[in-house]
């Protein structure tokens, strides 16, 4: 109740502010008039988190001169969420500068309906592809009825998109209309915002350069799935990851509860395109697994992204990983060093054998009679005694079973395609 009253008071203040500032905030008035940018009429966001969001929004507005607004209402009363958002934004005079530049998220607490839209000069950075990306990130939280996390994701994405735009980078759809960028989905909460930002920027460049989706997915458990690889493949299909008609991409999943991991590739850059063949996946796994084993999750993901980038670069130049016939490392013998050593050993052995032969003057005899004194040995009895026996046992044949071949991961689990195991 207290939060509702506070929100109403703040709303009145915002209305008064908008009237006094001719319906928009100029750049030089930002410090004076930016007060509240998180309106929680439903009272679902904890005070501490709301304050953190306000501070993050304030820094974003100051840095990029673009308004960022979050509103949670108790109900839409049957109204269309996007229409409600647009009317709310216009009525209360949000936006920076003459174009009313800004981006807004609206959520209804009773039905979890939502809407996102951008306005004015901000529409260039927050184009349809960027808004789709923001929607993609907040939707899983709203499915879990976690409104605070959805709001945090929105504010974080808004700052990231503005940062990209300032550097001349904009979200875009490929020709088939599918979103080109996925990045890090950290449901387990094991990464900091800064770490996610760094990984996302690296993945964004890979996705746009090679048309290959790169997904890092963390969770606390595997849910109803029997192993990590099955969970990964279900997520990849159900979440519609991948770029182009073949849904090209590569995905790494980890689950903290049982310390499971899985990695697999899909589409033309994967098994069909040979970039991420079985040998490549094993090399990539060998790269990030030591980091996971010592709980350095950011190090593991950074290594994963780096190796994916390198593998794609090699594939673009016609170079691919492959197994030797014995699936062991390919060591070359330097015969310029080994051959002289072998010759020296052989010469030494011949010389030593020759010296030994000259020193050995004793001659071995064919039987023991040579060593006996004449007439000292008399045979009074004889018998046959067997010192050794050989027993051959033949195992009785039983019914055998047949099965298909599978690729075996270094960590012990097997699967026909992809790799998984424990860390």
Oligomeric state of the chains present here: single chain
* Number of β-strand runs: 11
> What share of residues is helical?
40-55%
On the 0 to 100 scale, the average pLDDT is 76
What is the percentage of strand-forming residues?
5-15%
Structural class: alpha/beta
Largest sheet: 5 strands, mixed
User: SSE order, as H and E?
Assistant: HHEHEHEEHHEHEHEEHHHEEE
Rounded radius of gyration (Å): 36 Å
Give the CA-based shape. Answer: elongated
Count of helix runs? 11
Low confidence ranges: 1-33, 175-180, 327-333, 392-416
First-residue to last-residue Cα separation: 47 Å
Any overview of this molecule?
- The chain is of the alpha/beta class and 423 residues long.
- Helix 9 (278-293) runs antiparallel to helix 10.
- Residues 1-33, 175-180, 327-333 and 392-416 have low confidence and may be disordered.
- The strands form three sheets. The chain has a five-stranded mixed beta sheet with strand order 5-6-7-8-11, sandwiched between helices. It has a four-stranded mixed beta sheet with strand order 1-2-3-4, with helices on both faces. It has a two-stranded antiparallel sheet with strand order 9-10.
- Strand 3 (102-108) and strand 4 (114-119) form a beta hairpin.
- It has eleven helices and eleven strands.
- It is elongated, with a radius of gyration of 36 Å.
């Amino acid at each position: 109740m207290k939060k509702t009253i506070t929100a109403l008071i703040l709303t009145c203040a915002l209305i008064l502010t908008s009237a006094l500032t001719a319906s928009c905030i100029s750049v030089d008035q930002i410090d004076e008039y930016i007060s509240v940018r998180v309106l929680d009429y439903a009272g679902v966001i904890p005070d501490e988190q709301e304050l953190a969001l306000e501070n993050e929004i304030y820094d974003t507005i100051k840095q990029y001169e673009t308004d960022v607004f979050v509103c949670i209402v108790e109900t839409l009363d049957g109204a269309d969420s996007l229409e409600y958002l647009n009317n709310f934004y216009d009525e209360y005079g949000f936006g920076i500068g003459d174009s009313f530049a800004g981006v807004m998220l609206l959520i209804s607490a009773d039905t979890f309906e939502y809407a996102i839209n951008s306005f004015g000069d901000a529409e260039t950075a927050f184009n349809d592809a960027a808004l789709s990306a923001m929607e993609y990130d907040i939707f899983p939280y709203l499915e879990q009825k976690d409104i605070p996390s959805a709001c945090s994701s929105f504010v974080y994405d808004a700052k990231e998109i503005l940062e990209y735009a300032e550097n001349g980078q904009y979200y875009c759809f490929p020709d088939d209309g599918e979103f080109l960028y996925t990045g890090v989905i950290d449901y387990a909460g094991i990464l900091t915002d800064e770490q996610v930002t760094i990984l996302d920027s690296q993945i964004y460049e890979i996705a746009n350069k090679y048309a290959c989706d790169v997904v890092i997915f963390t969770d606390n458990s595997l849910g109803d799935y029997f192993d990590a690889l099955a969970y990964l493949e279900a997520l990849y299909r159900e979440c519609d990851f991948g770029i182009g008609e073949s849904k090209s991409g590569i995905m790494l999943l980890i689950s903290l509860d049982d310390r499971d991991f899985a990695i697999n590739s899909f589409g033309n850059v994967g098994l069909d395109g040979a970039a991420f063949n079985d040998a490549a996946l094993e090399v990539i796994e060998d790269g990030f697994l030591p980091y996971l084993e010592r709980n350095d999750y950011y190090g593991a993901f950074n290594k994963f992204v780096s190796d994916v980038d390198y593998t794609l670069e090699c594939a673009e130049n016609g170079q691919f990983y492959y197994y030797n016939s014995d699936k062991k490392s390919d060591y070359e013998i330097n015969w310029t060093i080994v051959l002289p050593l072998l010759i020296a050993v052989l010469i030494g052995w011949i010389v030593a054998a020759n010296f030994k032969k000259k020193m050995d003057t004793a001659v071995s005899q064919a039987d023991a009679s040579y060593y006996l004194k004449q007439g000292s040995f008399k045979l009074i009895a004889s018998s046959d005694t067997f010192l050794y026996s050989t027993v051959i046992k033949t195992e009785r044949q039983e019914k055998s079973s047949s099965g298909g071949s599978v690729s075996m991961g270094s960590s012990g689990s097997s699967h026909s395609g992809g790799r998984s195991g424990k860390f």
